[in-house]
Specification:
With 239 residues, the protein is of the alpha/beta class. The chain is 40% helix and 19% strand. The strands form two sheets. A seven-stranded parallel β-sheet has the order 4-2-6-1-7-8-9, with helices on both faces. The chain has a two-stranded parallel ribbon with strand order 3-5.
Length: 239
């Protein structure tokens, strides 16, 4: 079963674009891909959600799947409760991912917000779904000041649950990085206890899909299907 969970240190940090880059790299290698969004919040019916955006950017061969959609832009459990709708729990997420993995070469499960955001009234989280699946978690982090603490906390939560952290990807690397961003290239893998596996440039999601697909492998390390060189990136940042 080839399932990867994409989580992050918070919200609005580039998880969807990173997920699209992973999907694009997998498609370039000829793999079929399904993108599972357990709970889409803050999007009205009929409007494309995050999984649809991944499929748009990554192109043909990527199937978007949503388990639930709640109208208000809140944590999934809160949004479901306020809408009077049934929430989606970790067991449902794991079951859906397993079924997709029977059909697709790669299943990417994109969470909402950070790792421990509540999905149901029992306190179920994306981490619980990852544990049920035995799947690694790729953590998306911002580049700016303040990211180290959140990356460390996320890594600690994963270790406490016995979940493998695949690595860290910077979700939006600025065109003109400041001192904090440059230092974080060195410090993020240290505090996370996991390798830095990529950096997606700021604004990548605004690229035309063809341009996005062509560039995506260059943002991800070989273990994620790309050709991004962490050492070369670090040298360029320091220079």
């Amino acid at each position: 079963m080839s399932v990867m969970v994409v989580s992050g240190t918070g919200t609005e940090i580039g998880k969807t674009v990173v997920t699209a880059a992973l999907a694009a790299a997998a498609r370039a290698a000829g793999r079929s891909v399904a993108v599972l969004k357990p709970a889409q919040t803050g999007v009205e019916p009929g409007v494309p959600g995050d999984a649809d955006e991944v499929a748009r950017l990554a192109g043909p061969g990527v199937t978007p799947v949503e388990l639930a959609r709640f109208p208000e832009p809140l944590a999934p459990e809160t949004a479901a409760r306020r809408a009077g709708m049934a929430p989606v729990g970790p067991a449902e997420v794991a079951e859906a991912a397993r079924k997709l993995a029977e059909e697709y070469d790669l299943v990417l499960v994109e969470g909402a917000g950070g790792l421990l955001v509540r999905y149901d009234a029992d306190g179920g989280t994306l981490a619980d779904a990852a544990a049920l699946l035995g799947a690694p978690v790729l953590v998306v982090a911002p580049a700016a000041l303040g990211t180290l603490n959140m990356a460390a906390l996320t890594a600690e939560a994963l270790r406490a649950r016995g979940i493998v952290q695949a690595g860290v990807v910077v979700g939006s690397w600025p065109q003109r990085p400041g001192l904090a961003e440059r230092c974080n290239v060195t410090d993020l893998p240290v505090v996370a206890g996991a390798p830095l596996l990529g950096a997606v440039p700021a604004g990548a999601g605004a690229l035309a899909p063809a341009a996005f697909r062509a560039a995506a492998p260059g943002w991800l390390a070989p273990v994620l299907g790309g050709d991004w060189d962490a050492e070369a990136f670090a040298r360029a940042v320091r220079s």
